Amino acid sequence: MIKLERFEVMNMNNAIRGARNPLNSWARMDSYFDEKGNFVFGPNDLDLAKRLCKAGSDHRKFIRQIFVTVDITAPLYWWKEYDTYKVGTVANSTSTMHKIHSKPFEADDFSNDAKTDFAPVDQIPDGWEGLDIGPKTEAIYADVIKNSKTILWNGPTGVFEFENFTHGSRTVGEAIVEATKNGAFSLVGGGDSVACVNKFGLANGVSYVSTGGGALLEAIEGKVLPGIAAVKGEAYK
User: Fold this and answer.
1) pLDDT computed for residue 101 by the predictor
2) CA–CA separation, 148 vs 150, rounded Å?
3) For the whole model, what pTM was predicted?
4) Would you place residue 92 in the very low, low, confident or very high pLDDT band (cuts 50, 70, 90)?
């Protein structure tokens, strides 16, 4: 479950004073701090702030001086997707925050205890997330894997860090181990995939485990990796 707590907005007084710098109109400032120390916008300052915000980016630079902090408590999976959701990153020179997600956070987002149901991949209801494959997809994947002679696994099928969403990844891993026992060559590559097979105790049942994920795929594509080029004394292109 994601929790957003202890919001604080700071430096409002200095920001408004900075907004009045161009016209030297500090005497018109009418904002103040109440007895609890909370900043209260005065009518003059609020009107000025609204007009500057509407006037465009060149006129609302005072917003840069306003600091907003919040404590975020979230599962490991959410933090691993930190870059995807653009939390705390800068969009441009004005340090504007990116949106946290393309949809509002739901109560069950990224929780091991979330409500669960099965749905076709193209029919997932609004407000729900696809956190693992379902039994029909598991059966399809397992059948293909068990009839394969060369297998490359790069990436779990779901949020295997959450116990309630491990079944798909475990099924795929067990199918790979069974195929390997029957003579297939199996290669597991990538940090998450390695963590996955280790969690399920399947690492010894595959042919080879590579810590490289993206680099492994590039090598298979025939690309020259920087480290390999350096070892060979070649120029990296």
Assistant:
1) 43
2) 6
3) 0.54
4) very low
Give the Cα separation of 29 and 20 in Å (integer). Answer: 8
Q: What is the pLDDT of residues 124-176, one digit of tens each?
A: 887 777 889 999 999 999 999 999 999 999 889 988 888 888 999 999 999 99
Rounded Cα–Cα distance for residues 86 and 179 (Å): 40
CB 9 within 8 A of CB 66: yes
Distance, CA of 39 to CA of 41 (rounded, Å): 7
Alpha carbon distance 235, 226 (integer Å): 9
Tell me if 59 sits within 8 A of 52, measured CB to CB.
yes
Q: What angle do CA 194, 188, 200 make, to 5 degrees?
A: 45
CA-CA distance, 199 to 177, in Å (whole number)? 14
Q: How confident is the model at residue 95 (pLDDT cuts 50, 70, 90)?
A: very low
Between these two residues, 91 and 207, which has the higher pLDDT value? 207
Give me the amino acid identity at 54. K
Task: Record the tokens describing residue 18, joined without a space.
Answer: 């900075």
Residue 43 is given by DSSP the state: H
Q: Side by side, which strands form the sheet with 185-189?
A: 150-153, 185-189, 208-210
Q: What is the DSSP letter of 140?
A: H
* DSSP 8-state secondary structure symbol assigned to residue 122: G
User: Could you read off the pLDDT of 13-51 as tens digits, one per residue?
Assistant: 888 888 888 778 888 889 988 888 888 989 999 998 888
Q: Tell me 65's DSSP state.
A: G
47 closest CA partner among 77, 19, 75, 71: 19
